[in-house]
Write a structure and sequence with these properties.
- This protein is α/β, with parallel strands linked by helices.
- It folds into two domains: 2-289, no CATH class; 304-369 and 414-572 and 613-732, no CATH class.
- The protein has helices at 2-18, 51-67, 81-99, 103-116, 132-142, 152-161, 167-192, 214-228, 230-243, 270-280, 307-318, 322-331, 343-355, 357-377, 430-447, 500-518, 536-554, 616-628, 644-653, 657-669, 687-691, 704-732, and strands at residues 23-27, 33-35, 40-44, 291-293, 304-305, 380-387, 402-407, 414-421, 451-457, 489-495, 558-565, 573-578, 587-592, 597-601, 606-609, 632-640, 671-677, 679-686.
- Strands 5-10-9-8-11-16-18-17 form an eight-stranded mixed β-sheet, sandwiched between helices. A three-stranded mixed β-sheet has the order 1-3-2, with helices on one face.
- A hairpin with a 4-residue loop joins strand 14 (597-601) and strand 15.
- The longest helix has 29 residues, at 704-732.
- The chain is elongated.
- The protein starts with a helix and ends with a helix.
Length: 733
């Protein structure tokens, strides 16, 4: 996992050097590659490279990404690709050093280490016998550590290599280098054949700052290179055009021998191949390749269950006749429907609604106070230019004689989006959670804040199907995107768009179902609204579309997204292509996200590391949401039992002294607020304390001790609720 993090750190380095949000991928490839069209830089997994070498290699590849053009130069220039690559390496490294003052040191230490490890295979070799191109490559890479000899005439071209500013310069100088090597090859052949006459033509003239002879000598060697290639031009033109050049800017992928017919094919260039092979050896074949996934774009029409549809199904379910019930029983013999009497539950709802008015009013008061305090904190005071006659008598010792005006900034419109956990594990605390939710809904209605409430489920019967009978897909399944459960849905329980009477009826219906969850079997609940799994992570992905839509419809400035849950979401995976021997085309399968996986946001260029494949998933999705929607506060409310509190705290804080501090706070206050742990604030609340009824209710024959205990209990519950609500208001206001 440490290596995975290291790769990402070096990926961030590449982005910084490129001064753009490149998409950087670390994969099991032999050489670095850069796609100029998609702006994807693929880096090998150089696990065995030191930091100095790794940084140098990254800087080098970024240089290719920035400065090497995407052109098919082989069609018009008959020159060995390896020679061009050597000269181009000099140019792009020079430009990178010029762009970043700190890179010369990086390249120095990197090449020093490569030389010490003999990456160029020069130990026990006579470097003077190397080709001219090889010696140029060694000179500009490890020339500070190895003596490389050139003739005076060769030195002219060596200096010209360093003067290249454009890729056209590189091509022209590469022809000169190739011309020298071709001449040397011919003379070597003559010597081997017993011909002792040497006829080596090299550029003449004295060097002046490495510039002399550039214009005069180019023509001579360009012409010679063209003459040498005349015999092969006809037969090679068609082959060259057919093979072309890779669209990757890194010319290290260009062939060095064979495959490209040009006048330099027979030049023996050793150092390029040696360096490339040794760099490939820096990659550990056993390294785990990083996996990059992206958020899919979901179709909300196929995910969100309409508010009206939900309660129509409730009415249908609760108003059946006896014949319908008998038919249902025959069809589903294991389940016998029965008509339920919800009189008691509806009375409990009315009683709770009445008792909640005090807490709602408290919320409104807290909201207005904190909003006013914030406004005045940002207020500005300015002088009007009008004399304040009441201060004229102070003119001798004070210059503050003008009237002042206080300007209050305009407040922002708020909107709330609630996410309610509708999973089976919520059964014991669902009613208490719903009560807290209702307090917030009534608060929103009273201060006229728009809101939407969604409950996630993976058990709502699909209403739309594809031609093959499967459920209509809520997103496009393709390789490299996060996979979602096919039956994932968001039930739009409540919305501020409904009138008060309709909203009250709907809240009464959900109150029934929430109560029934605690008393399994006593009440008949519509099949579509029964508790299910925990597609929390799928919900976070859907919020990428829900939040912009909510802002657009309500025209609010600030959104609070509140998630009420009792645990982590279900595991999600990603789609990938799998090649199977019996299939002609790749099969689209799925795999789990784990510690080698990263979430990538192409728009921002950011990547997020999944530390594990379970508990850490939600944190990654939340961090991505917060970066994408900086005007949204993400507030989590986690209901925990006494034994779960320590796990909840350490899961988010870690095993350290700070975690112990929060644990003590929870034991004392029965709640804790964790900051910046995926959520902007994550409230851990005691499920037991939340379940305490704040009403002072005792039996008629209660003893004094019983009355005292009931009174203390009610005060404690009220104190707990006010404390939580007050903290909540700090973020809302």
């Amino acid at each position: 996992m440490l290596e995975q993090v290291r790769h990402e750190v070096k990926g961030q380095l590449a982005k910084l050097l490129a001064t753009e949000d490149l998409v950087v991928e670390n994969k099991q490839v032999s050489t670095a590659q850069f796609n100029v069209h998609t702006r994807v830089l693929t880096l090998p997994l150089w696990d065995r490279a030191s930091n100095s070498v790794y940084d140098m290699l990254v800087a080098h590849e970024v240089g290719h990404a920035l400065f090497t053009p995407d052109i098919d130069w082989l069609k018009d220039h008959k020159v060995h690709p390896s020679i061009v690559n050597i000269v181009e390496d000099v140019r792009i490294e020079k430009l990178m050093k010029r762009k970043y003052a700190g890179l010369p040191k990086t390249f120095y230490h990197g090449y020093e280490e490569l030389n010490d490890d003999d990456f160029f295979s020069v130990v026990d070799e006579d470097v003077d016998e190397f080709s001219f191109a090889d010696r140029i490559n060694l000179h500009y890479k490890i020339g500070l550590f190895v003596d490389i000899n050139f003739t005076d005439q060769e030195q002219v071209i060596v200096d010209k290599v360093n003067t290249c500013e454009t890729f056209d310069d590189v091509l022209e100088v590469s022809k000169l280098v190739q011309g020298v090597d071709l001449d040397l090859m011919k003379q070597k052949e003559k010597l081997e054949n017993g011909d002792l006459s040497l006829d080596i033509k090299l550029p003449s003239g004295e060097r002046t700052d490495g510039q002399a002879g550039f214009e005069s000598d180019d023509e001579e060697y360009q012409t010679k290179s063209e003459e040498d290639s005349t015999e092969t031009d006809t037969e090679s033109k068609e082959d060259t055009e057919s093979k072309g050049q890779s669209k990757e800017s890194d010319m290290k992928n260009a062939p060095t021998t064979g495959g490209v017919h040009n006048s330099g094919d027979n030049i023996d260039i050793k150092t390029v191949d040696s360096l490339q092979q040794n760099i490939e050896d820096l990659t550990n074949e056993g390294s785990t390749e990083s996996v990059y996934v992206e958020i899919p774009k979901v179709n909300l029409k196929n995910i969100i269950i309409d508010n009206k549809e939900i309660y129509e199904k409730c009415d249908e379910w609760w108003t059946f006749d006896e014949e319908e019930a008998e038919a249902f029983h025959k069809l589903y013999g294991y389940y016998n429907r029965k008509r339920c009497d919800f009189t008691d539950l509806d009375a409990d709802y009315e009683k709770f609604k009445s008792s909640a008015k005090k807490e709602v009013n408290y919320l409104v008061k807290e909201f207005e106070c904190k909003k006013s305090a914030d406004a005045y904190a940002r207020a500005s005071v300015s002088k009007t230019g009008v004399l304040d006659t009441s201060k004229l008598h102070t003119y001798k010792y004070s210059e503050d004689l003008f009237k002042k005006i206080t300007t209050l900034p305009d407040g922002k419109n708020h909107g709330l989006v609630f996410i309610l956990d509708w999973s089976g594990s919520m059964s014991n605390v669902l009613l208490d959670t719903v009560k807290q939710l209702y307090n917030l809904i009534w608060f929103c209605k009273k201060v006229q804040i728009p809101f939407e409430v969604y409950a996630f489920t993976n058990d709502y019967p699909p209403t739309q199907f594809d031609e093959d009978g499967s459920r209509i897909k809520c997103y496009e399944k393709k390789a490299g995107v996060v996979s979602l459960q096919d039956h994932f849905s968001l039930m739009n329980f409540f919305t501020s768009k409904t009138n008060n009477n309709t909203l009250d009826m709907q809240m009464k219906y959900i109150y029934r179902i929430a109560t029934a969850a605690r008393h399994y079997g006593d009440y008949d609940v519509p099949q579509c609204l029964r508790l299910s799994g925990t597609p929390l992570n799928e919900t976070f992905i859907a919020l990428h579309e829900i939040l912009p839509q909510f802002k657009k419809e309500t025209k609010v400035d600030k959104v609070q997204c509140i998630v009420l849950t009792d645990g982590e979401g279900c595991q999600v995976g990603y789609h990938r292509e799998v090649n199977r021997s019996w299939d002609d085309n790749p099969y689209l399968g799925t795999a789990n996200l784990n510690s080698n996986s990263f979430l990538r946001d192409r728009k921002s260029g950011k990547t997020y590391h999944f530390k594990d494949g379970w508990t850490g998933l939600s944190t990654v999705f939340l961090n991505n949401l917060r970066d994408k929607f900086p005007d949204v506060n993400f507030i989590g409310i986690r209901l925990v039992g006494g034994r779960d509190a320590n796990y909840f705290i350490r899961q988010n804080i870690g095993y350290n002294d700070e975690a112990e501090k929060y644990a003590r706070m929870f034991r004392k206050d029965k709640s804790v607020a964790l900051l910046d742990v995926g959520y902007d604030v994550y409230f851990g609340m005691s499920a037991k304390s939340l379940a305490n009824d704040s009403e002072f209710d005792v039996q008629e024959d209660a003893t004094k001790a019983q009355i005292k205990r009931a009174f203390v209990k009610s005060l404690s519950a009220k104190k707990f609720n006010k404390k939580v609500l007050s903290k909540f208001m700090e973020f809302v206001a």
